[in-house]
C-alpha cells in the first residue's frame, strides 16, 4: 500500500487518523500533482456519551464525538464509505466542497440523494478541485448534525505553501453543543406544536463543555503551546442555531482564511463565526513562559426574539513550562487564570465591523474571480412567518399559529424523492416545479412596520439556470416576527459578498458601492439583522444545489430553496451519471 498518511503528512501530530478511518497513500516522492485517492470508512453507530454528569446514547461516527477528521490535499480524490448501523436514516454533507460534476456526493437528504437507510451503505466519491483550507462534514437530515460532525482539512498541494509563514502546529477547534435530551425529539415536538424548540444545555469545544458548566471541569479542552511559536487554529462553528463570539485572553488573533479561501490578514481580539462557517487564525504565543493560563471562550451573538442558550463555553490555553526548571514550575492549578472579555450578546456594531474587514487575498496565485457582468438578478427576502394551526390543536406560535420560515414567502416543502434524481431521470412532475420566484410577490417596507398578515405559502420550487449563468443575488432580512441575522449556505458554489447594509436594499444607489475587486468569497454568508447582503456567483457546476439558512431551526421551518444548474455543452460541463450504490427512497 505504500507509506501511510501519518508517515507522509506534515500534520501527523495533530490530524491522527481515527479508529476505523483508513487512508492509504503511495510514497510521497511518487505523488503526482493531480493527487491521490484516500479511503475512509464511517460506521454510524450508537454510543453512550457522558457530559454534565448526564449519560445518553447518541448517534456517532465510529463511536466518536465529535467525529473523525477527514484530511486530504488539493487535487485528491476521496472515497468515504458510510455504513448505517442505527435506526435513523442518514446522509452526510461535505460542507463547502464544490463537488464539480459530482453532485451525487453532496449529501443533503432528498436533494442530491435519498438517505442511507438502516443496514445500508453509500460511498461518497468526489475530488477536491481548486480548494484548500478548513471545511467540515456533518449529517444533513433532520437535526442529526448535533452529534454527527467533524473537520475536513484540505492541505495545499505538495510543494505549494501557505500565503503566510508556516505555523509551528495546526489545531482544529470545533464549536458544538451538548443536549441532555434527544435532538430528534426536540425538533419533532417543535414541529408538532408550532413553537420554538428547546435549546442546548451547553456549548462545547471539540466536544467538551469546559469548566464554566456544572459537573464539567474534567471535560475541558486544553490547548498546550510553547512560547515564541505561531499556531494555526482551524475554527469551525458546528452549533445548531447560534453565531458565536470567540476570544483568547491576552492573545491576538490574526485572521487569514474564511470558508477555505485566503484573506488579507488582519488582527483582532475577538471574532464572530456563524453556524456553517470556518475561520483560520494565527496565534503567536508569548516569547517567554508567562506563568499563567488563559481561557479561550465563546458565547452567542443574538439578534432574534427566540430563546437561546445564554451560556459560555471555555477551553484553556496552557504554556509548556521550561524544561530546565521543572522543579520550580508551579502546578497548573496554582497559576493565575486570565479571562477574555467578549462583546455583549447583541453587539451588532461589532459584528458589522468584523465582517466588513473580511477581504479576499486577490493575488495572481489566489485571485478573486468576481463575475463582473450579470446575466440574472434575484432578490430574495428571508424571514420568519406563520401558518394556521393544523386540526383542532392549540399551537404555540404567535396568536395560536405555527411558526415557519420562508424565502420570498415560499416555505420549502421537502420532497420524498431526491430532487437531483428526479431531474436526471426526467421524472420531475409531482416532485418539484421550476418556478421559484426571482422576487417577492408582495413588496412592502421590509425592515419597517411588518404587515399584519404573516402567513406564508409553501411548495417545492427551484430556480433553473443555464450552465455558466452569472448570478447576482440580493438577500434581504425583514421585520416579520422580528428582524434577525440569517447565515445562508449555498451548496456547490461560493458566494462573492460584494456588498451589505442595513435597512432596505436600494437597487438605484447601493450597487455603486459594491466591492468587485477583493470581496470575501465564502459558502455561508450572514444576512444582517434588519439589512441586506449582495452576492454574486457563477453557475458553472451542473446539478441541484440546496441553499438554506444554517440556523437549523429556520431550515426545519422552511427557509430553504434549490438551484438547478443545467448541463453545459462540453463533457466537463455535464453532471456525471449516478453511482450504482446511490441510496433509494
From TrEMBL:
GO terms for molecular function: copper ion binding; hydroquinone:oxygen oxidoreductase activity; oxidoreductase activity. Gene3D superfamilies: Cupredoxins - blue copper proteins. InterPro entries: Cu-oxidase-like_N (IPR011707), Cu-oxidase_2nd (IPR001117), Cu-oxidase_C (IPR011706), Cu-oxidase_fam (IPR045087), Cu_oxidase_Cu_BS (IPR002355), Cupredoxin (IPR008972), CuRO_1_LCC (IPR034288), CuRO_2_LCC (IPR034285). Its main location: secreted. Lignin degradation and detoxification of lignin-derived products. PROSITE patterns: MULTICOPPER_OXIDASE2 (PS00080). Belongs to the multicopper oxidase family. It is found in: Secreted, Extracellular space, Apoplast. Binds 4 Cu cations per monomer. Coiled coil: none annotated. Residues 1-21 form the signal peptide. GO terms for cellular component: apoplast. The keyword Nuclease does not apply. It comes from Eucalyptus grandis (Flooded gum). Transmembrane segments: none annotated. One of its GO terms (biological process) is lignin catabolic process. Residues 47-157, 170-321, 441-567 form the Plastocyanin-like domain. Keywords: Apoplast, Copper, Glycoprotein, Lignin degradation, Metal-binding, Oxidoreductase, Repeat, Secreted, Signal. This is Laccase. It holds the Pfam family Cu-oxidase_2. It catalyses: 4 hydroquinone + O2 = 4 benzosemiquinone + 2 H2O. The lineage of its organism: Eukaryota, Viridiplantae, Streptophyta, Embryophyta, Tracheophyta. It is an enzyme of class 1 (oxidoreductase).
Amino acid at each position: 500500500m505504500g507509506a501511510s498518511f501519518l508517515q507522509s503528512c506534515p500534520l501527523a501530530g495533530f490530524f491522527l487518523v481515527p479508529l476505523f478511518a483508513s487512508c492509504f497513500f503511495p510514497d510521497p516522492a511518487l505523488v503526482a500533482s493531480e493527487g491521490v485517492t484516500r479511503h475512509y470508512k464511517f460506521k454510524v453507530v450508537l454510543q453512550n456519551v457522558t457530559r454534565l454528569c448526564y449519560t445518553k446514547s447518541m448517534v456517532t461516527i465510529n463511536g466518536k464525538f465529535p467525529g473523525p477528521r477527514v484530511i486530504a490535499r488539493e487535487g485528491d480524490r476521496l472515497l468515504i464509505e458510510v455504513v448505517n448501523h442505527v435506526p435513523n436514516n442518514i446522509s452526510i454533507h461535505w460542507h463547502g466542497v464544490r463537488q464539480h460534476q459530482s453532485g451525487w456526493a453532496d449529501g443533503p437528504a432528498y436533494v442530491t440523494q435519498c438517505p442511507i437507510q438502516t443496514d445500508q451503505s453509500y460511498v461518497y466519491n468526489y475530488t477536491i478541485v481548486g480548494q484548500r483550507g478548513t471545511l467540515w462534514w456533518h449529517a444533513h437530515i433532520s437535526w442529526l448534525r448535533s452529534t454527527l460532525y467533524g473537520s475536513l482539512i484540505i492541505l495545499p498541494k505538495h510543494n505549494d505553501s501557505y500565503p503566510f509563514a508556516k505555523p509551528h502546529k495546526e489545531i482544529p477547534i470545533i464549536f458544538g453543543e451538548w443536549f441532555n435530551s434527544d435532538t430528534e425529539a426536540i425538533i419533532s415536538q417543535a414541529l408538532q406544536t408550532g413553537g420554538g424548540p428547546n435549546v442546548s444545555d451547553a456549548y462545547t469545544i471539540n466536544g467538551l463543555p469546559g469548566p464554566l458548566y456544572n459537573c464539567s471541569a474534567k471535560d475541558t479542552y486544553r490547548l498546550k503551546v510553547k512560547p515564541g511559536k505561531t499556531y494555526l487554529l482551524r475554527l469551525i462553528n458546528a452549533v445548531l442555531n447560534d453565531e458565536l463570539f470567540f476570544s483568547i485572553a491576552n492573545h491576538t488573533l490574526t485572521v487569514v482564511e474564511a470558508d477555505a479561501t485566503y484573506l488579507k490578514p488582519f488582527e483582532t481580539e475577538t471574532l464572530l463565526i456563524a453556524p456553517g462557517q470556518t475561520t483560520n487564525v494565527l496565534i503567536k504565543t508569548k516569547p517567554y513562559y508567562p506563568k499563567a493560563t488563559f481561557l479561550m471562550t465563546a458565547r452567542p451573538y443574538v439578534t432574534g426574539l427566540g430563546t437561546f442558550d445564554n451560556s459560555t463555553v471555555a477551553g484553556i490555553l496552557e504554556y509548556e513550562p521550561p524544561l530546565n526548571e521543572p522543579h520550580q514550575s508551579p502546578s497548573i492549578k496554582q497559576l493565575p487564570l486570565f479571562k477574555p472579555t467578549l462583546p455583549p450578546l447583541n453587539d451588532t456594531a461589532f459584528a458589522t465591523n468584523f465582517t466588513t474587514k473580511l477581504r479576499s487575498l486577490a493575488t495572481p496565485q489566489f485571485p478573486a474571480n468576481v463575475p463582473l457582468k450579470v446575466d440574472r438578478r434575484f432578490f430574495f427576502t428571508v424571514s420568519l412567518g406563520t401558518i394556521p394551526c393544523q386540526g383542532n390543536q392549540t399551537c404555540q406560535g404567535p396568536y395560536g399559529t405555527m411558526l415557519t420560515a420562508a424565502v420570498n414567502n415560499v416555505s420549502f416543502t421537502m420532497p420524498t424523492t431526491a430532487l437531483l434524481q428526479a431531474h436526471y431521470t426526467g421524472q420531475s412532475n409531482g416532485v418539484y416545479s421550476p418556478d421559484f420566484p426571482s422576487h417577492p410577490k408582495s413588496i412592502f417596507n421590509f425592515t419597517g412596520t411588518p404587515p399584519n398578515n404573516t402567513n406564508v405559502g409553501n411548495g417545492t420550487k427551484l430556480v433553473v439556470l443555464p450552465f455558466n449563468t452569472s448570478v447576482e443575488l440580493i438577500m434581504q432580512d425583514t421585520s416579520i416576527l422580528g428582524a434577525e441575522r440569517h447565515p445562508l449556505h449555498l451548496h456547490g458554489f461560493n458566494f462573492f459578498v460584494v456588498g451589505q447594509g442595513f435597512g432596505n436594499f436600494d437597487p438605484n444607489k447601493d450597487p455603486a458601492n459594491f466591492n468587485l475587486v477583493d470581496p470575501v468569497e465564502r459558502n455561508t454568508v450572514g444576512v444582517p439583522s434588519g439589512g441586506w447582503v449582495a452576492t454574486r456567483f457563477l453557475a458553472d457546476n451542473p446539478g441541484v444545489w440546496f441553499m438554506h439558512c444554517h440556523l437549523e431551526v429556520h431550515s426545519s421551518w422552511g427557509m430553504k430553496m434549490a438551484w438547478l444548474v443545467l448541463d453545459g455543452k462540453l463533457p466537463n460541463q455535464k453532471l456525471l451519471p449516478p453511482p450504482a450504490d446511490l441510496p433509494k427512497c
